[in-house]
Structures are given as C-alpha cells and as structure tokens.
Specification:
This protein has helices at 2-23, 28-42, 47-66, 69-81, 103-110, 122-130, 132-156. It is mainly alpha-helical.
Length: 157
C-alpha cells in the first residue's frame, strides 16, 4: 500500500517537473502570474476572456500533473482553437510535424467522431491513447507559445 501511494506522488512530481521545463522555470506559479498580469494589462477590456484563457491553461497544466491526460489535452486544445481575447488561429497553427498531422485530428480520434471521411477504428484510438501524455505535453507547449506570443506583442505595441 505504501509503495503504490508513494508512486502517485513520484509520478505527479515528475509531470510537474516536465511542466516546469516546458515553462522554463523552477516556479510555475511565478511564471504564470507574470504572464497573466501582462495579458491583463494588454486586454483590460476583455477581462472575462483573459480569465477564460487562464482557466483553460491552469486546468490543462493541473490535469496533466494529475495524470488526466485526455482532459488536459482538451483544455489546451480550446486555447489554440477557440477565440478568447483574440482568434488563436491567426497566431498559431494546429498542424504537427509528424503523424497525426494536426491536433484536430487527434481530438477527432479521441472523441470517436466521424468528421468528413475520417473513419475511426479501435487501433487508431488505442495508438492515440498510448501516446496521449506526449500529445498533451505538445499541445500545452503550443498553448504556451500562443500565450507568450500575445505577451510579446504587448511589448511591441
């Protein structure tokens, strides 16, 4: 019992460290606070949209740390596809370098939907779910890139 409960915290600490590396910081909270303060200053008229963006990002990172990769993926997906303070599609692509070719394709397979002529089979679902921790980390990275680009544009404005 002790070993299994200890592993939960070890795994969570490892995933937290991955997020720290992604954010290029040792203190996640400080980095996040700085990013959101800059976004609040840049978009004072869109406080609710900034809060929604903050919620999605916080949920994505928290759920990733907890090991809930699928829900973390969906939270980060909303950041790069749904308009909040701006339309993210004007700033960042959802295309990937390897297969599957886009985050939208991964989302489609995860939701088992049939969009256009895509047929989702059990083999595809198993393959995607096996690689889901990697995909979740990739999409969180993409969401962070988008947020940092918005913040960087603040300095140029």
């Amino acid at each position: 019992m002790y070993c299994s409960s200890s592993l939960i915290y070890v795994n969570s600490a490892y995933r937290c460290r991955l997020i720290c590396k992604l954010l290029n910081t040792n203190r996640i909270k400080d980095k996040i606070v700085t990013l959101w303060e800059k976004l609040d200053r840049k978009f004072p008229q869109k406080k609710e949209d900034v809060e929604l963006l903050r919620y999605y990002f916080s949920e994505a990172t928290r759920l990733f740390e907890e090991g809930s990769f699928e829900i973390a993926y969906f939270s980060a997906y909303k950041i790069i596809r749904e308009p909040t303070v701006v339309d993210p599609r004007a700033y960042i692509s959802d295309k990937r370098e390897s297969e599957p070719s886009s985050f939208s394709e991964i989302r489609t397979i995860l939701t088992h939907s049939r969009q256009k002529d895509i047929q989702v089979g059990p083999k595809q679902i198993i393959e995607i779910k096996t690689k889901l921790p990697q995909y979740a980390l990739e999409i969180i990275q993409r969401a962070l890139t988008f947020i940092e680009e918005l913040v960087a544009k603040e300095n140029n404005s």
